[in-house]
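Structure tokens please, single chain.
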Amino acid sequence: MKLARVRFVGLVLIALASAGRASACAPAGGLAALVAEGERWWKSSPDPRDPVACATCHYDPAETRGWAASFPKYRPLPPPDGRVMTLFQANAEAVQRHYRLPDAERPALAITAYLTSQGAGIPISPGIVAGQPVFEGRLRALAESVGRGERLYARWCRSCHDAGAVAPAALFFPAVGNGQVESLERFLGRHRPELPHVGPDDQPSTDVIAFLISRLTGRPVGVAP
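Here you go.
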């Protein structure tokens, strides 16, 4: 009886996320518009005095196409900032560092949607990008993140939400609905205040997402359950 309830709750979460993705098909303010916005952020700097944009360095689609499938992964930022990050968190950090915007969340969401659309159909492989070197230390850090996330999920979530039923909903983010865009990180933070969605204290939310995504390894990016 309890297992049936857990599976039902998981399906409800997927349905809620799906509703956002389905409403994104609307012509205005939908997912396609968010992807287009992300492409603009990717290719154009917001500062006319500094024309360097993401695409200035990362101009080859063949290079960037596998990025979405490889997150979460360890980002080797200058000490002490190197850590496992989600794609959204990595984009937010890069937007803050390179574009120097006071609020990086919306551009990071849009860029995340754009890169995810570019990688549609590529099998999820956290920590690994096809054709690029694999560093054991980074994979070890990711495995540790997954382990922490599993423990946090068991403590905060598992009594109501079966991870196997909930994990596929991660593929629906960023979710667009009712004129709003939401990251998986913010979605989790709304349900658990202990999970800040972005910033220096976001490691718990990263760990939970790393655990959930680890259960989707091999599933194509951008393909709903």
